[in-house]
Write a structure and sequence with these properties.
By secondary structure, the chain is α+β, with helices and mostly antiparallel strands. It has a domain of about 130 residues: 2-Layer Sandwich (Uridine Diphospho-n-acetylenolpyruvylglucosamine Reductase, domain 2), CATH 3.30.43. It contains 19 helices and 8 strands. The strands form 3 sheets. It has a 4-stranded mixed β-sheet. It has a two-stranded antiparallel sheet with strand order 4-5. A two-stranded antiparallel ribbon has the order 7-8. α9 packs across α13, α13 runs parallel beside α18 and α15 crosses α18. The structure holds protoporphyrin IX containing FE (HEM). GO terms for molecular function: heme binding; iron ion binding; monooxygenase activity; oxidoreductase activity, acting on paired donors, with incorporation or reduction of molecular oxygen. Pfam families: p450. Belongs to the cytochrome P450 family.
């Protein structure tokens, strides 16, 4: 009798344990970790999106079914555990939309380490809340789809100056493109005209962005042990404190100096139109100053990178240039430069811009979001504090969505088949409440750059910094949040003397 009773107790105990385990959902699948360090060695450090896509295919919840039905299709949700931190990697559109957009209220936090918090606030790291909403409202009013149209004259002028420079000097396009983007941003935001590459306000904006983005990088020991921030700076190994002090000043200068400059120009009646002049009496001055400063910080490297991919894509695809030039010539008759109003008549140019955003997405893993409350998804546990990474590259290179994804093929966006080639903009600018507020500004810049380059010039002879001829297959690019092509040079040649004249006479300097 006794053994039977013991067996019964044991069975009941095991059942209870099994039930309890069932009640506490598992984490999503992923590579099995090692003792103590978990998946530390599984976190990729180079071209991260490629490895994450591989994980999704290997461990994704539906990977087996998907592989059978759709070989090489994008995978599903994957989890890595690193030193107590959970990383959730999303690779499918449905998961991303459901979690980052539909459940955006709890999936839109940001990593806010002690280092970045000591340097100062920025839109990129603000938690959802009143200040965040105030800044996002300012962005919508300045950079919404309709408001953006009034920016196009300033942008067009900056594009033409950049093109002249590229034609004249045949230099590494980075310098001219930086001036184009920075010049337009400072003109729009503060009515400030940049006169040289080492302009004072450009330097302030660069330093401020550098301070903030450096403090945001992972790996600061104070982010793991925030109490270290209270140590006196004279102690050894507290170099981070001196950096904080310097960077805090740079970030603060970026907030105040251009704003105060506009204020004094308004007071003396000589201010030119600008976002700052419009916002000077805004009820939340802190929000207004931060929004304007962060246009440069968040918009410079991203737009620069997308512009570099655009120029490179054109240089490597002469057939695309010929088709685009025909389309533009039919609209402008070679007698004027294309404008924003022509966009509706230039679908192929529009398709080129979309394809640039798809072919080599500028921010291939978007910007990580943080889960602010524990959640369950498809029976899996998503712990509070998890870092959620959306593998945008994986979607934009899903062969089911974009056949032959590695090919630069703008015409795919002219197809009327709604099942394939969805608009890459849906993914390339992030998701939910944190979706990029500068997407219209970036889009107009890219459209104006593409249409003006193609209206007047032919881009050719792309070579690496070692003078090796580049081909679509030989391209190298950087890892990290923003993925830029490796340094290259190319030739920008006016298509005819008449078009050269148009480039030089169309706009005044
Ligand atoms: C091709 C150019 C650009 C790309 C590809 C891009 C992409 C992105 C992405 C992926 C995010 C993260 C969204 C998320 O967390 O889900 C983001 C955030 C942001 N972008 Fe852009 N962006 C570009 C240009 C710009 C420009 C011109 C501005 C100027 C206003 C800008 C301002 C911002 C800001 C302020 C954020 C932070 C938003 C937040 O955290 O709430 N971006 N961008």
């Amino acid at each position: 009798m006794l053994p039977l009773f013991s067996v019964l107790v044991l069975v009941l105990g095991l059942l209870r344990l099994a039930l309890r385990c069932r009640r506490r959902p598992r984490l999503p699948p992923g590579p099995s970790g090692k003792l103590l360090i978990g998946n530390l060695l599984d976190v990729p450090t180079k071209h991260e999106w490629l490895r994450y896509a591989e994980y999704a295919r290997t461990y994704g919840t539906l990977s087996l079914l998907r592989e059978v039905a759709y070989p090489r299709s994008a995978g599903d949700i994957v989890c890595l555990r690193v030193l107590g931190q959970t990383l959730i990697i999303l690779s499918s559109e449905n998961d991303i939309k459901e979690l980052l957009a539909t459940r955006g209220a709890i999936y839109s936090g940001r990593m806010r380490g002690a280092m970045v918090q000591s340097v100062g606030e920025g839109v990129l790291v603000l938690p959802l809340g009143r200040p965040f909403r105030a800044i996002r409202r300012i962005f919508s009013s300045l950079l919404g789809p309709l408001a953006i149209r009034r920016c196009s004259d300033v942008q067009a002028q900056a594009v033409i100056q950049c093109l002249r420079r590229l034609v004249d000097q045949q230099q590494d396009p980075v310098i001219a493109l930086k001036r184009m983007i920075g010049g337009a941003v400072l003109q729009l935001a503060y009515g400030y005209e940049v006169k040289s590459d080492d302009d004072h306000f450009v330097q302030l904006a660069e330093k401020s962005a550098f301070a903030f983005l450096s403090a945001l990088q992972p790996g600061w020991v104070v982010d793991t042990f925030p109490a270290l921030m209270d140590l006196p700076s004279w102690l050894p190994f507290t170099g981070f404190k001196r950096k904080v002090e310097l960077w805090r000043q740079d970030a603060e200068q970026g907030l105040r100096a251009p704003w105060d400059w506009v204020k004094s120009r308004l007071a003396s009646g000589v201010a030119t139109p600008s976002f700052a002049a419009e916002l000077m009496d805004h009820k939340d001055e802190d929000a207004a100053r931060m929004a304007l400063r962060d246009i440069y910080g968040a918009g410079m490297d991203t737009t620069l990178t997308a512009s570099l991919w655009l120029i490179l894509a054109l240089a490597l695809h002469p057939d695309v240039q010929i088709r685009a030039q025909r389309e533009i010539d039919a609209v402008t008759l070679g007698e004027r430069l294309p404008t924003l109003d022509d966009r509706g008549s230039l679908p192929y140019i529009d398709a080129i811009v979309k394809e640039v955003m798809r072919w080599h997405p500028t921010v291939p893993l978007a910007v990580p979001h943080i889960v602010t409350e524990e959640d369950t998804y498809h029976g899996y546990r998503i712990p509070k504090g998890s870092i959620v990474i959306a593998n945008v590259w994986s979607i934009l290179h899903d062969p089911q969505k974009y056949p032959d994804p590695e090919m630069f093929r703008p015409e795919r966006h002219l197809s009327h088949d709604v099942k394939v080639n969805p608009n890459p903009y849906t993914y390339a600018f992030g998701f939910g409440p944190r979706q990029c507020p500068g997407r219209n500004l970036a889009d107009t810049t890219l459209y104006l750059l593409a249409s003006s380059v193609l209206a007047t010039c032919t881009v050719s002879s792309a070579v690496s910094s070692h003078n090796e001829i580049l081909t679509p297959e030989s391209l190298e690019y950087t890892s990290g949040t923003i993925s830029r092509p490796a340094p290259f040079h190319c030739r920008m040649t006016p298509r005819s003397e008449q078009l050269r004249a148009l480039l030089y006479d169309g706009f005044s300097d």
